[in-house]
TrEMBL record:
An MF annotation (GO) of this entry: lipid binding
Gene name of the encoded protein: Rbp5
PANTHER family given in the database record: FATTY ACID BINDING PROTEIN (PTHR11955)
Source organism (scientific name): Tyrannus savana
Subunit structure: Monomer.
Gene3D superfamilies: 2.40.128.20
Family statement drawn from the similarity comment of this UniProt entry: Belongs to the calycin superfamily. Fatty-acid binding protein (FABP) family.
InterPro entries cross-referenced by the UniProt entry: Calycin (IPR012674), Fatty_acid-bd (IPR000463), ILBP (IPR031259)
Protein name in the entry: RET5 protein
Amino acid sequence: MPPNLTGYYRFVSQENMDSYLRALDINVVLRKLVCLLKPDKEIIHTGDHMVIRTITSLRDYVMDFDLGVQFEEDLGPVDGRKCQTTVSWEGDQLVCEQLGEKRNRGWRHWLEGDKLHLRMTAEDEICVQVFQKVK
């Protein structure tokens, strides 16, 4: 049985965000701004339904979805694109595939103790973020 990811997580660290954003064709000014942000995550996980909020001082981004069901995701706040998104479990990892203009786009979340890990991919770039569970 996959873990329940419900909780509030504070930003700890990130690696390679600028290159990841460059792969998404984000302009240099916005890339610099995003690299300074320290987002928090709030996850509500109820059965096969999840809500993942990414919370920053600039703006919040909310994903509200059913596991295993493809939906159109509007990534306008991120990079102006829309994609066909499916989120499902692969073992203990929550895996998101985002089909659209960018190859190899998606992410995966997993827990190691009380730390939430996020690995985001786009094209050949990988960005890793780590969050600490606080409640």
